[in-house]
Amino acid sequence: MQPPSKTTPFSLPVDSDHKATKFRPFTISPPHMRAFHLAWISLFSCFFSTFAIPPLLPAIRRDLHLTAADVGRAGVASFAGSIFSRLAMGPICDLLGPCAATAAFSLLTAPAVLSASFMSNSTSFIVIRFLIGFSLANFVACQFWMSSMFSNNVVAVANGVAAGWASVGSGFTQLVMPLIYSFLINTVNLSSSTAWRVAFFVPAFFQTVTALMVLAFGQDLPDGKYKRSSNITGQISKENAFTILLNGLKNYRGWILGLTYGFCFGVELTTDNILAQYFYERFNLDIKTAGAIAASFGLANIVSRPAGGLVSDEMGRRFGMRGRLWSLWVVQTAAGLLCFLLGRSNSLWGSVLVVCCFSFFVQAASGLTFGVVPFVSKRSLGVISGMTGSGGTIGAVITQLLLFSGSSGNYMSTQTSISLMGILMVFCTLPLTLLYFPHSGGMFCRPNYPPTHQQHYDHLLQCQ
Amino acid sequence: MEIHQSSLVISLILLSGLVATCYGVPFTSLNKTIGITATPSIPSGQVLKGGESTLTISWSLNATSSVGIDTSDYRTVEIKLCYAPISQKDRGWRRTEEELQKDKTCQHKIVERPYNPSNNMYTATIKKDVPSATYFVRLYVHNSHEEVVAFGDTTDAMKMTNLFEVVAVTGRSIGLDIASVCFSAFSIISMLGFFILEKRRAKT
């Protein structure tokens, strides 16, 4: 058993893998905290781009002659794009390393954001939203990167803060894009139709710059570039990649976490898409106020997702994996109940209050989920992260298609759909009870095997 | 005389109700007392272009439909461009609501004028920001309290006749397209550049 090295050149205390055991988000000490800041900022720009379209929809739908069905389909398309890309990102991270993977996805989807200025009908609108959605794969790379840089006792809070601060991009864009659009119309005197097209240069530029920064200043591991253990022969490397993929897919925990993540993060994504419209149409608010409320839903991510990560690490410290699982189940079920309540709320202020609470709980649940993911499989970390992340967007697609697409609008009102979404959340969180880790137990079961030497050491680390 | 008195009483009740609810008037409470026509500047069957084409609108008090209705409180008229049902289909943000305050049928104001029973004409240019859709023209009459008391349509009750189509100016331009392509190329080239650099560094 090797004690943590005290003679390393790192400015943060590290474990035997040189992963940081302390998380200090307000410093930029290389390589750990610098990696953290690069990761969350580049993911922030991807969220900013993907959700740049909803706040400008009133102008876009006027220009492109869109129907409600077109808008719904495009919303689904934006998530569908990210399902495949997140699944692919898992093995790509295992192969190329998170830095290269993040930058590649950002730089390849920036042209899609720019192509938004070419849109002229509903088909191009749907295709562009599909392509821009690919950039959300960077989420998997971000979590992979954080899990490579930070030790077990702080991995959940590192994941939570990175993803939480990055998710703020979805709320920030709801505030900023209308401002850019107004500026272009009022000050630069462009027509509405030109203004929204020019406005998309901003997210594209931001995405490109952050990607280049990741390439220039980021490193995959505390010790340097990502290297597969089999640099020696390419054959072994290919075998490993496929085995890693299969290993991840065979693990039932990846599937369950994918399902539950679908009903916390997926619900969050769907709510990002429909909230402004809901307040605009149900309570007759003007577009800016409705946008501000929708923005505050996304902005809550600054604190709520990190809070989820903190709770996960704290519960992990006290009660091990059992604590992490129980806290995830409680928080996500509470989020489901609040979502149900939102649909039943008839007053404006009541709805705003419920939205605040709902945003906190649903985002904390996302943070808590990625407090469990790093422990599922060390070998296939990328694949499991990809499956969970993908499950998130699959959940978004399912909820959006089932409850908020054009055809469902004929059978039930938006508020009924929101309540139903809450009920679905509560039911789909129940599979967490089935999760079982041989060395840590599950929600209702004790561990079957005594902790091994390595687990004992990990446990000691968590207590420091 | 009796008809006049009873209709006066009814309109007084209506007016007092209107004072309480301000603009929250149901559409069915309005009297269709104004006859209005809108003639496009181009032959029928063709489409109007946003920013270019004009509409000549003329309106006057319809003698037959305003019998027994008190028109002394008519002060101003507001003329709006309204979406025809075909452009409202599957577009909830343009739907027709009973309550005028919530109604989203008429979103484009053409002009506001003081009320005159006859000899009114106005030539309006279709504004640039009017989206591509099928329209008709509606006139709302306001009283001295800024409440809507009457209206007139260029189309029939089913909103099927006398509709005209507008094609809006597109915001795309060559300059914008070129800028997009250049920026995209920069993005992809910089990515390839970095990867080639990495490979070279790995070799040395």
From TrEMBL, chain A:
Instruction: One Pfam family, please name it.
Output: MFS_1
| Topology versus the membrane | Multi-pass membrane protein
Indicate whether Transmembrane helix appears among the record's keywords: yes
Question: SUPFAM superfamilies from the entry?
Answer: MFS general substrate transporter
Record's subcellular location? Membrane
As given in the record, the signal peptide range reads: none
Query: Listed GO cellular component terms?
Result: membrane
Where mainly located? membrane
Domain Major facilitator superfamily (MFS) profile: start-end pairs: 35-434
Biological process (GO), any one: nitrate transmembrane transport
Q: Which residues cross the membrane?
A: 35-57, 95-114, 126-145, 157-184, 196-218, 325-343, 349-376, 383-404, 416-437
Which UniProt key words apply to this protein?
Membrane, Nitrate assimilation, Transmembrane, Transmembrane helix, Transport
InterPro entries, alphabetically? Answer: MFS, MFS_dom, MFS_trans_sf, NO3_transporter, Sugar_transporter_CS
Query: Would you identify the family this protein belongs to, as annotated?
Result: Belongs to the major facilitator superfamily. Phosphate:H(+) symporter (TC 2.A.1.9) family.
This protein is called Major facilitator superfamily (MFS) profile domain-containing protein
UniProtKB/TrEMBL annotation, chain B:
Q: Which InterPro entries match?
A: Transptr_NO3_Nar2
Q: Which residues form a coiled coil?
A: none
Which terms does the UniProt entry file under GO BP? Answer: nitrate assimilation; nitrate transmembrane transport; response to nitrate
Q: Where is the signal peptide?
A: 1-24
Q: GO CC: one term?
A: plasma membrane
* Key words of the record: Cell membrane, Membrane, Nitrate assimilation, Signal, Transmembrane, Transmembrane helix
Superkingdom: Eukaryota
Q: Which residues cross the membrane?
A: 178-197
The UniProt similarity line reads: Belongs to the NAR2 family.
Role: Involved in nitrate transport.
| Name of the protein in question | High-affinity nitrate transporter
Upper lineage: Eukaryota, Viridiplantae, Streptophyta, Embryophyta, Tracheophyta
